[in-house]
Specification:
Layout: H1 8-19, H2 22-40, H3 63-73, H4 83-94, H5 100-120
Helix pairs in contact: 2-3, 2-4, 3-5, 4-5
């Protein structure tokens, strides 16, 4: 194996990534994408609340795919406040063996709750 180049945090991340099984690699990549989206979300000032863009839930879906789907559905949400809960749910699935369907149900509830909080910041129309 060739020597890994770059700063120590990058080398460490690559070593850890290479040590993971394929499913865990997918989970790590999805989580990294979630973190990147969290940092790029910009609120729209002086406009009304944005509505979710529903993406139907497939009959079989991985937790990683569900996070991607819900991130698209609720693109207006700041991912930062959801980070701890999302991470805990992913850990419950990957590390503790909790079923994907149960974790996805909880993820849907998490995103819906944060959307309600988002909507509550806007005065009622009318």
């Amino acid at each position: 194996m060739s020597r890994i180049q770059g700063p120590e945090p990058e080398r460490r991340l690559l070593r850890l990534f290479r040590a993971l099984a394929a499913a865990e690699r997918d989970t790590l990549l999805a989580f990294a994408e979630f973190l990147v989206q969290r940092g790029t979300a910009t609120p729209e000032p002086h406009r009304g609340p944005r509505e979710p863009t529903p993406v139907p839930r497939p009959s079989t879906e991985s937790v990683v795919a569900a996070i991607k789907r819900l991130s698209k559905t609720y693109a207006m949400l700041d991912r930062g406040p959801m980070l701890n809960e999302t991470s805990a749910l992913m850990s419950a699935h990957v590390l503790q063996g909790r079923s994907a369907s149960e974790v996805i149900d909880d993820l849907e509830a998490l995103f819906a709750r944060h959307y309600r909080d988002y909507r509550a910041k806007y005065p009622p129309e009318g």
